[in-house]
Amino acid sequence: MSTAHTSEETIKHDKTNVSIDITAKCGRNIQGKKGDNLVSFLQVSIEEINLGESEKKHANPMKHTIDYDFTCTYNSPNDAQAFSDILQKPIIFTVVEVLHEGKKGELKTAVLGQAVVDLFPLLQGQCSFSSTVPLNPVVNPGIKESRQGMSRKQPTLEVFVSVTEPLLTEPELSTCIIMKVTVETAFSVPDTWTLPTGSAHSPFAYFAALEVPLTAENDQALMFSEGHLMPGGLREGKGRRKRRPLQSLLVPGNQFLPGSFCQPEPIDHEDGELTSLEDQAFRDEAEITKNRVRWDTEIRCFLDACAASRLKEKITDSRLWPVELMRTSIPLSRLGDENPEIPFHGLIFVDMGRLLYPGVSRIRGAYTVHPFYESELLNKVSNCHSSIACSTQTYIIYKTIYFHIYKTKRKASVLKEQAKIATVLAKSRASIQQSVPPPKPTTCDEASESASEPETKVNVEGNMYLEAKTYVIIEVSLNRPLVPKTSPEELARRVKALIPPKPKRPAGPTRAEKAVVDFHTQVGNAVAAVSEQFAEIFGANSKLQESLSKEQILAEVMGGLNVSGRYFAFKEQIKRAVVKIVRDKMQRSRPLTDPQEVKEFVSKLYVYLVDEMHVALNKIYSSDVAEDCTDEMKLESSQLRHFAKEAQLTSNYQQAAQYYQELVVRHPDEPLYKFEWGSLYMLIGDYMKAKECYYDAVSIQQTHQPSLMMCGVVAVMFERYNEAQTFLERATSLEPPSVEAWTLMDLYTYTDSRNLSERNKTFREDVYSFYMTMFTEMLQTTAQINYNEAHILKLATLRFTVQKFPLTDGLLHLSLNEAFLPERAFLEAKKIFGEEEANRANADDKTKLSEDNSEEAKAQQDEHETDNSALPHIAEHDPEFPDHDMEESREASLHIDKSWTSPTKLTSSIFTQTLKFLLQNNALQMAEHALSQELLGSKGGCSMAYYYSLAQFQLLKGDYSSAIDSVKEALFYKSQYPDAWALKGHCHYLQGTFTEARECYEWSMVFPEPPSDTHIVHLRLGAIYILEEKFIQAKEVFLQACEQSPSCLTWLGLGKACYRLGELCVAEEALAVATLLNSANAEVWAYLSLISLKSGQLQEGDEYYKNAISFDFQDSSLNEEISEAKRQTRMSKLASCFNASPQAEAETV
């Protein structure tokens, strides 16, 4: 605020006027009726004020120029109103040709053209600027010379504008605002608005008006007075040029603002109303077939620093700003004196609240027109509920609630005020001519008092807007945002202050070190080649080696190396290694020309290579070098990650942590593994360790978006809301934009508001209950309200609650500006979500178009065969279905045929998409808030996505019975959803009802599209088959799992099934693979012990059993089975010994 006061004081300095020098230098390509003998002069004016007239100048026929060199001065008051006039009123240059000059000085002239210059650069800090502007002809049927006097080449006028000092200082430029308001087109106007037969122009005038702040105390009215009724039949063209105000003073070519165009955008990207899918069809029809009123006019206005602050305050108080609309056949000044009647008086509410979003400086959208009632505008509805009850349109409800919340203190009708002012000015002019004192103008206070009287007259003409569903396209833009957006660099700095990045790891070996290592490797290869050749010659004939001398052996080996080609091979390899040594180690890249230098370098190189050769040979033959003799299979990182997720799903959290630890050790610079490790700790409830993992992931990579989001979620759990906002804002600033990040920002603010009373003891406890009660009453009264509007209403109610119950100590974290944060986050998430849905739909359409007809027919035939074969398969495996599941199964089978070929898609929203992220990372507290928001937004009852997410949430909470009930509700909506069947199976499995679990798992595998967690389905289904002694089915399931996603548990399951089937060799092979994947699984060693004992290998069985015991083997039933197998093996060996003794005695005898 101090800056604003300083700027206001600065703008009111000693100078009361500003002198603007305007110089018309030269005109080019101007031709008149007299041809090369053109004589002309310039008239300079602004609006109706004449600034001067130049001398008569002759044209230069050779250069086609006219040197006017005419300078005039425009003295403007140094205040905000004058600056607004500068923005709205251009300097007008009129070129007049002198056709004849009489003896008495009488001139016969013709207007050749008109040029305009905007003074806008002066309000951008410039002291001077030059401009070459086109000179456009005057289109007037009464002046035939006008068109003939212009040459085919575009005539121009060079103008120079200057001031002695800048109109605005640097502090003023940084605090003042230039607002641009554009009223484009009114669509779907009342049916009575038609053009007269045979005429292209309407006899009526069409006005739009609104008020915006000018200074800290005064407002300025913006009048759009030159609307044109246009017939329907074609859609409005794209890229239409915006027009200036006061078009009546300008020729047609000068009515357009240079570089300003109406830029249409997709309906779902607009900021106004009528953006839903249901409204698009109506708008398409209205914008093509129906009549419309076109303004396409942009008015620029200046707001000083105090006015900018006042604009922000007024939007905060009431985000809905009225724009008035009317149609009249008489001038504005003749509408009336005291209380003029405005024909077709309509009211538009422009939602300016989005201008308080950080970084937002432009809004554009369609806004519906309502009948104007001053009592509604002034009194803002004394009883909200009665007004809501008598209204049937949702958007009227929407506006009325806002009125009840904000209770704005506004003046009476802007159009009536302007009509009164126009009437007073007209009478003033008449009184001056007749010397009659002018009437006393009505003050704003008097107008407000008179207008505050209750109205009884119904606005019949205004109601036509409702019947026609009229709406107007309006755009408001600012040269800078009201609320600056925090830059990504600043957000990165804040995150860096909370989580310092880890120091960079030392770089790998240099090129010189790599060259030396490569040389050592090639020396080793050469040694290996020589050893192989020596073994081929002397390996089988040791006598030959003894009979030859060392020189002869060397000759034999060299000859063999040359004949076999080994010598040439390792010589070329060593040559390349030596080149790298020379280039990278000795830094020699240019050839040597001096023979002495060559000799010295070769000598030095030889010594170095011999030394390095000895180093390499010592490495090969030294006894100090330990060889890696381990035969253990090295697992890939993808396998370790798969095993970690498997261990997490099977509740083996310690082993999952070991896998993640190994991944982190292998990849210390990869944040993904730290992030997933943190999700494991979230599952087991160790939130401090989870926080450490997420912080470590961010310290590794400061832009890792999922880790930043989870850091924000954990910060909310620990009630560190400032940190949470920093993390989430940083996540939203990263590319690509994330639905989850923006939705979490919305949920964070919701959570923050619920914890206000806990964080501030002075906050009254009835605030939140009042907020919820008020919003609940609104929703009950507005049952048909749109979901987006309902969510925004909730946030608006929250803002009202914060205003109604202020904190005495000012420590409330949720400030008024921050109250707009959840709304912005919600709308950004919806926008990104819509774009992603559209991209997915386009991709699906392209995929469908690319499919061949024959392939589609074949797929349908295969699916039909699968349908006929799969369903009896289930009945055969499970003849005894419970009654309630049989009903669900029959119901599911009825739906399978209808949607068999269509891919399974779950209709989602921003909250269900965010729920998926939260549940995957076990953030149950925030997931609960997301569920409540999804429930609030469910139109016509709870959705399938809500019930499915709720079941997942309840499963993670351990409430299996409630989860089963929820997933049943989900299956009622979409019985052919495989993930829901799998989820139901998980609930039954964890509850211990294995028969129901098996049935659900089997149903999930029937559909063409398998469930997303097929691996855990295979594991649990196979385990159930083994429990039920259906070993053939278990073998099939585990074999499929080993093919799709092999792990120790899949191979263990296959080994168990094969063992029970008596296929001991296959079982042993499967268990051997399982030990390679995880040598610490006690059950694997136990089954290997069983197989060895069954094969009569007692010693190996004992060794395997000892391994199982060392890994904490605790399966009592399997332990008894091993003991029984040992006993039987020993007994069989004893029996064989006793049988062998009598046979030996008989042979001896």
Can you give a write-up of this model?
The strands form four sheets. An eight-stranded antiparallel beta barrel has the order 10-15-12-11-16-17-18-19, surrounded by six helices. The N and C termini lie far apart (123 Å). By secondary structure, it is an alpha+beta fold. Helix 37 packs across helix 38 (1014-1027). It contains 44 helices and 19 strands. The N terminus is likely disordered. This is Cilia and flagella associated protein 70. One of its GO terms (cellular component) is motile cilium.
Provide the fold topology:
Blueprint: H1 2-11, E1 17-28, E2 39-46, E3 49-53, E4 57-58, E5 65-77, H2 80-88, E6 91-101, E7 107-117, E8 128-134, H3 145-148, E9 156-163, H4 170-175, E10 177-187, E11 205-213, E12 219-230, E13 240-243, E14 256-262, H5 277-289, E15 292-303, H6 305-317, E16 320-328, E17 346-351, E18 362-371, H7 374-379, H8 384-389, H9 394-406, H10 414-434, H11 444-451, H12 460-468, E19 471-478, H13 488-498, H14 511-538, H15 542-547, H16 550-564, H17 566-585, H18 595-621, H19 637-649, H20 653-666, H21 671-684, H22 687-700, H23 705-717, H24 721-732, H25 739-754, H26 756-759, H27 766-781, H28 787-804, H29 821-850, H30 853-877, H31 883-896, H32 910-920, H33 924-937, H34 944-957, H35 960-973, H36 978-991, H37 994-1006, H38 1014-1027, H39 1031-1044, H40 1048-1060, H41 1064-1077, H42 1082-1094, H43 1098-1110, H44 1116-1148
Antiparallel strand pairs: 1-5, 1-9, 2-3, 2-4, 2-6, 6-7, 8-9, 10-15, 10-19, 11-12, 11-16, 12-15, 13-14, 16-17, 17-18, 18-19
Helix pairs in contact: 9-28, 13-24, 14-16, 14-17, 14-18, 19-20, 20-21, 21-22, 22-23, 23-24, 23-25, 24-25, 25-29, 25-32, 25-33, 27-28, 28-29, 30-37, 32-33, 32-34, 33-34, 34-35, 34-36, 35-36, 36-37, 37-38, 38-39, 38-40, 39-40, 40-41, 40-42, 41-42, 42-43, 42-44
